[in-house]
């Protein structure tokens, strides 16, 4: 099997597949951990039971999502060695310590306090328990810090030298960590995680409001989520714009791919709204474009010249059809979120936040929007870096392990089968929990529940119907 | 130069420590999964799972530190060993996916037979076997050419690696059984005692078999253990193994709660020390020493700062988490 295949292509497919399945869970758990900390803090401050109920409700969901993030994350950590050993050898001295710091400062913190957070409220009391929740939330953010620093270094390498063995070595650790694209990517990703979570929480709240507009838990979570969407979506659009300008400065070829700029535009570039990029012919077919707007957005001047991919050797082109479309999907989702935020604000002002069926249906439909945007955004930035793993310095084709195609193909096949089984089950369980409304006397994860044979007790099932 | 040499040794010790903590912590954790088929009653299984549910994630994090630490401190070794151990590594990762999600999923599954119990047991078996096989494959050495692994993707499969794989399954099962002795009561604990006896003898058999087979792999291993004057330093290891075994037999005979687990850990520590004696100073036996594989000093020093502050901190709050969930797990204890 896989004899005629290219091992590097298979390794890339494996990375894309396992990464796409993985990133969904951290994006959710980063936001959800912070949300849980906020819920518990409000419970401790106000003593209102609805916050404790919501905390326990989302804690069960968090436990599943976090576990799935952990196991798919271990796969990612080892993949650098299994499929990308040349990359590991050459970049290990720079990226290795960053990832090891992630383990030391974030993974252990999350894992160490997770048990207490999930099962320990009655054992340690509310104050220490809140500390544990806070540590888990902080851990997820520290984790984002380090992993985005390493990813950003691959996009915009800085502070490095190359030694006699051809390895990258750090010349200045601060420049390595705070490389040019890192602050932008970190802000953009953390906001994305918060938005993703807000949209899920909002969709669940809206779903239950559609069935019963009076349930306190649904109202509180929906209101909180809509505040988040209202406030964060516009900030995210600004952050994304700034990130784009930073990319133009440090990775102009990636921008060419995202914009579909095969040709140079010495007198000002158009904004191509839609079209079919043809990588072979090197042009965007059926392009629907607004003249000069590309230069206006990217250079803040309608007549600013913009070089295109015709100034770049073809072997250094990113796969434009992918980056062009994934970028548009991400931006489209961003504006839909912005729209949801505005609509909810208007309903809130009119006093119909908990009654507008249109708003609730919109919010339910937007539930997965954050995940779609995160995936599309990562596809944009990762394929936009191609054909390099370390931008302009190390080619993807020179990064792979010296493995034959059958080895890489078999492991890819194994991951595909296993992930579809495990994730189908996991998503089913998550949706099943979300389908229950939050109710008074909500209990935490199942280890504190009475002995029972099924996952959902008949009592809880009765409430939902 | 002398600084670099010292650093590489320091880092070898740090990695060895991280891997050992992993083996100790996830060892009993995997061991519980290995023993799972022997506890068919649902009530027993719930207790077994609850005895480790609050800490399993932390246990597994040491594996990520071991891998990440090798990539950071000895990138060449990481780059050579991971492709060489390709199949066992992929098998281990997939096994860990199954058993990891089982901790939450098994409470959510509906129906009579719980498929995630099977995932937990099967995943634990496969992960333990794969780790043991990987250990054997490292000991027997891998083919290296110019900073690359140069062998095929089934080179690891030999009778020796199968022996080390099975041995580790037995060892983890012993840790799991003695953990249950410590954490449970009544019928479950009696069962764990009986299993501990059996597994202890199996473990001793495995130690003897691996100890005989290892020197036969390479003449270097033979010299390391038996040549004069090395034998002065190596002889205490088997003597200590014998002493710990006697103590462990006594602890089991007297039905002590805590001693069997900690003495089993001591047995692991001694086997692990024996492994270190065989391998040092190679990180890829017979091909790459720790100095050849070492990352530049500034990478090792940069991370050393973090390790020296953070590892004690991590051990501190991990100990706290174990303390919070200390004592016997009673079937009704968590349910208020």
TrEMBL record, chain A:
GO MF: electron transfer activity; heme binding; metal ion binding; oxidoreductase activity, acting on diphenols and related substances as donors, oxygen as acceptor
UniProt keyword annotations, A-Z: Cell membrane, Electron transport, Heme, Iron, Membrane, Metal-binding, Transmembrane, Transmembrane helix, Transport
Gene Ontology BP terms: aerobic electron transport chain
Transmembrane segments: 20-45, 57-78, 98-121, 128-148, 186-210, 222-239, 325-346, 358-379
Family: Belongs to the cytochrome ubiquinol oxidase subunit 1 family.
Main localisation: membrane
Protein name listed in UniProt: Cytochrome d ubiquinol oxidase subunit I
Ranges where the record places region Disordered: 441-465
Entry-linked InterPro entries: Cyt-d_ubiquinol_oxidase_su_1 (IPR002585)
PANTHER family xrefs: CYTOCHROME BD MENAQUINOL OXIDASE SUBUNIT I-RELATED (PTHR30365:SF14), CYTOCHROME D UBIQUINOL OXIDASE (PTHR30365)
TrEMBL record, chain B:
InterPro entries: Cyt-d_oxidase_su2 (IPR003317)
An example molecular function term from Gene Ontology annotations: electron transfer activity
Alphabetical keyword list: Cell membrane, Membrane, Transmembrane, Transmembrane helix
GO CC, alphabetical: cytochrome complex; plasma membrane
Residue ranges of coiled coil: none
Membrane topology term: Multi-pass membrane protein
Primary localisation category: membrane
GO BP terms: aerobic electron transport chain
Membrane-crossing residue ranges in chain numbering: 7-25, 76-98, 118-140, 160-182, 194-213, 225-249, 261-283, 303-325
Localization: Cell membrane
NCBIfam families to which the protein is assigned, alphabetical: cydB
Similarity annotation: Belongs to the cytochrome ubiquinol oxidase subunit 2 family.
UniProt-recorded name of the protein: Cytochrome d ubiquinol oxidase subunit II
Origin species: Bradyrhizobium huanghuaihaiense
């Amino acid at each position: 099997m896989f004899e005629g295949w290219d091992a590097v292509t298979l390794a890339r497919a494996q990375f894309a597949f396992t990464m796409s399945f993985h990133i969904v869970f951290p994006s959710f758990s980063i936001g959800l951990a912070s949300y849980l900390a906020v819920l518990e803090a409000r419970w401790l401050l106000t003593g209102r039971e609805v916050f404790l109920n919501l905390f326990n409700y989302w804690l069960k969901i968090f436990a599943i999502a976090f576990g799935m993030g952990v196991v798919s994350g271990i796969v990612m950590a080892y993949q650098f060695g299994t499929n990308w050993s040349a990359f590991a050898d050459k970049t290990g001295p720079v990226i290795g310590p960053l990832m090891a710091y992630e383990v030391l400062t974030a993974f252990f913190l999350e894992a160490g306090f997770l048990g207490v957070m999930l099962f320990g409220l009655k054992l340690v009391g509310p104050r220490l328990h809140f500390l544990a929740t806070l540590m888990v939330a902080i851990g997820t953010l520290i984790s984002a810090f380090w992993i985005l620093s390493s990813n950003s270094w691959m996009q915009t390498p800085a502070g490095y030298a190359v030694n006699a063995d051809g390895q990258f070595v750090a010349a200045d650790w601060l420049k390595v960590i705070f490389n040019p694209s890192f602050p932008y990517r970190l802000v953009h990703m953390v906001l994305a995680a918060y938005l993703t979570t807000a949209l899920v929480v909002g969709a669940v709240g809206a779903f239950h409001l559609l069935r019963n507009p009076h349930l306190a838990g649904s109202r509180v979570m929906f209101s909180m989520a809509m505040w988040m969407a209202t406030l964060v979506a516009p900030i995210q659009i600004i952050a994304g714009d700034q990130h784009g300008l930073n990319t133009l400065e440090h990775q102009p070829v990636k921008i060419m791919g995202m914009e579909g700029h095969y040709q140079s535009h010495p007198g000002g570039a158009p904004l191509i709204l839609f079209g079919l990029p043809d990588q072979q012919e090197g042009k965007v077919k059926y392009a629907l474009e607004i003249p000069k707007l590309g230069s206006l957005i990217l250079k803040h001047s309608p007549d600013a010249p913009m070089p295109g991919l015709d100034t770049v050797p073809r072997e250094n082109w990113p796969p434009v059809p992918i980056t062009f479309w994934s970028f548009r999907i991400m931006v489209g989702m961003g504006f839909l979120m912005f729209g949801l935020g505005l609509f909810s604000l208007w309903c809130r002002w009119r006093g119909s936040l908990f009654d507008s069926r249109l708003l609730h249906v919109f919010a339910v439909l937007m539930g997965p929007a954050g995940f779609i945007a995160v995936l599309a955004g990562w596809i944009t930035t990762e394929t936009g870096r191609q054909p390099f793993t370390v931008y302009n310095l190390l080619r993807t084709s020179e990064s792979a392990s010296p493995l034959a195609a059958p080895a890489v193909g078999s492991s890819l096949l194994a991951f595909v089968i296993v992930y579809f089984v495990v994730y189908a089950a996991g998503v089913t369980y998550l949706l099943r929990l979300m389908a229950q409304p939050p109710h008074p006397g909500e209990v935490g994860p199942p280890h504190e529940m009475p002995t029972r044979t099924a996952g959902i007790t008949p009592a809880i099932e009765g409430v939902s119907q | 130069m002398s600084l670099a040499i010292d650093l590489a040794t320091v880092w070898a010790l740090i990695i060895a420590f991280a891997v050992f903590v992993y083996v100790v912590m996830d060892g009993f954790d995997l061991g519980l999964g290995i023993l799972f088929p022997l506890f068919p009653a649902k009530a027993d299984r719930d207790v077994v799972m609850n005895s480790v549910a609050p800490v399993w994630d932390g246990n597994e994090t040491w594996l990520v530190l071991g891998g990440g630490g090798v990539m950071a401190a000895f990138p060449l070794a990481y780059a050579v060993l991971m492709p060489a151990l390709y199949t066992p590594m992929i098998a281990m990762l997939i096994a860990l996916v199954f058993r990891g999600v089982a901790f939450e999923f098994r409470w959510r599954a509906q129906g009579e037979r719980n498929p995630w119990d099977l995932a937990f047991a099967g995943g634990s078996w496969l992960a333990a076997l794969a780790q043991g096989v990987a250990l054997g494959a490292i000991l027997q050495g891998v083919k290296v050419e110019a900073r690359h692994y140069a062998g095929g993707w089934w080179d690891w499969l030999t009778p020796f690696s199968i022996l080390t794989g099975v041995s580790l399954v037995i060892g983890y099962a012993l840790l799991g059984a003695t953990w249950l002795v410590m954490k449970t009561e009544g019928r479950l604990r009696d069962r764990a005692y009986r299993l501990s006896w059996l597994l202890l003898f199996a473990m001793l058999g495995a130690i003897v078999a691996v100890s005989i087979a290892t020197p036969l792999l390479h003449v270097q291993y033979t010299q390391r253990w038996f040549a004069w004057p090395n034998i002065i330093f190596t002889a205490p290891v088997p003597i200590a193994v014998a002493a710990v075994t006697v103590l462990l037999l006594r602890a089991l005979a007297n039905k002590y709660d805590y001693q069997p687990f900690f003495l089993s850990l001591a047995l692991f520590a001694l086997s692990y020390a024996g492994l270190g004696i065989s391998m040092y100073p190679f990180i890829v036996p017979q091909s790459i020493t720790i100095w050849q594989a070492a990352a530049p000093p500034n990478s090792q020093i940069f991370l050393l700062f973090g390790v020296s502050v953070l590892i004690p901190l991590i051990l501190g709050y991990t100990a706290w988490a174990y303390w919070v969930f200390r004592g016997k797990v009673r079937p009704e204890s968590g349910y208020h």
